[in-house]
């Protein structure tokens, strides 16, 4: 579709994909698809994650790899729309970070939990007769160990998200999905037999509800959510120079000259009005009238940008 053309004009001209243009024409009549897109993204990503867990956990030695891989793929797929959380604990940490409003967190969590329920139900339907899906659990009398496992790996997951995908000092990167997926992969291999390696209330709720087991749902909410809370607090303590916090419906983040991650010494980044970067939530970071540059002072030996 040419610049400045409406869908009707492009259709009449006849030099565009007619089917695509008709869809654009229909969608452009309402803002509803754009409004619902982030919530659909969170629903679909959570559904696919739980579907893979249901079909692989306890049935394949490669289950941790499959689970980490689908999470990585979903993060890369929908990170630009919703942030690609697929996890109420991660969304809570992002809210603590200041990139998500409390009300939006509620709607994200609802979409994620519904996605988890649908993924577990779909997986249960796909499994052959007589084969049950996985039920998250921990050994008897090992509640403390299981809680520690779920808390620390949920904390690690949320910390990874916040520091690879929401920091201005990291800038645009293509590794955040890998980092997030491999965190879950490492956790699944390490503590799968200790706590069930859930790290996600939407996953725990979906698997337990579809299995008809309700007694441990509280556990798979409390431990990951506590991990997300602590990760959010620690982010502000460790990354005190990431001063781009904006609440509400703002679409721009005003970055006052420097946004420093604790890992890069004195790093200064400014962004011109015609060269913007987007963080994990899709918001654009700009400083009008300034040039884009990265400067490392008192170098720690790291090459940055």
How would you describe this protein?
By secondary structure, the protein is mostly helical. The protein is built from ten helices and five strands; from the N terminus they run H-H-H-H-H-H-H-H-H-H-E-E-E-E-E. A three-stranded mixed β-sheet has the order 1-4-3, with no helix packed on it. The longest helix is centred in the first third of the chain and has 25 residues, at 32-56. It is globular, with a radius of gyration of 21 Å. Mean pLDDT is 79; it is low at 246-305.
Q: Gist?
A:
57% of the residues lie in helices and 6% in strands. With 305 residues, the protein is mostly helical.
Indicate the topology:
Blueprint: H1 7-13, H2 18-27, H3 32-56, H4 63-82, H5 88-97, H6 102-126, H7 143-165, H8 176-195, H9 201-211, H10 217-238, E1 252-254, E2 266-270, E3 277-278, E4 284-286, E5 293-297
Parallel strand pairs: 1-4
Antiparallel strand pairs: 2-5, 3-4
Helix pairs in contact: 1-2, 3-4, 3-6, 3-9, 4-8, 5-6, 5-7, 5-10, 6-9, 7-8, 7-10, 9-10
């Amino acid at each position: 579709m040419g610049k400045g053309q409406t869908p009707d004009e492009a259709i009449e001209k006849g030099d565009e994909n007619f089917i695509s243009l008709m869809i654009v024409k229909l969608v452009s009549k309402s803002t509803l698809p754009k409004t619902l897109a982030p919530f659909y993204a969170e629903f679909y990503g959570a559904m696919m994650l739980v579907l893979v867990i249901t079909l692989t956990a306890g049935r394949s030695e490669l289950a941790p790899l499959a689970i980490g891989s689908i999470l990585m793929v979903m993060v890369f797929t929908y990170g630009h729309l919703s942030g690609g959380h697929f996890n109420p604990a991660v969304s809570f940490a992002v809210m603590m970070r200041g990139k998500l409003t409390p009300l939006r967190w509620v709607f994200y969590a609802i979409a994620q939990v519904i996605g988890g329920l649908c993924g577990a139900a779909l997986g249960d339907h796909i499994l052959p007769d007589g084969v049950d899906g996985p039920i998250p659990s921990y050994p008897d009398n090992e509640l403390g160990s299981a809680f520690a496992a779920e808390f620390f790996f949920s904390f690690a997951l949320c910390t990874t998200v916040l520091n690879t995908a929401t920091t201005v000092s990291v800038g645009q990167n293509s590794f955040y999905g890998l980092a997030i997926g491999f965190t879950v992969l490492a956790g699944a291999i390490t503590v799968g037999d200790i706590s069930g390696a859930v790290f996600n209330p939407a996953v725990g709720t979906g698997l337990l509800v579809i299995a008809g087991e309700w007694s441990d749902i509280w556990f798979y909410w409390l431990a990951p959510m506590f991990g997300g809370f602590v990760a959010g607090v620690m982010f502000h303590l460790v990354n005190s120079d990431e001063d781009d916090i904006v609440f509400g419906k703002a679409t721009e983040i005003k970055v006052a000259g420097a946004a420093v991650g604790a890992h890069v010494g004195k790093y200064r980044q400014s962004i011109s009005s015609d060269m913007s970067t987007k963080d994990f939530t899709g918001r654009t970071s700009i400083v009008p009238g300034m040039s884009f540059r990265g400067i490392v002072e008192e170098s720690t030996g790291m090459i940055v940008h």
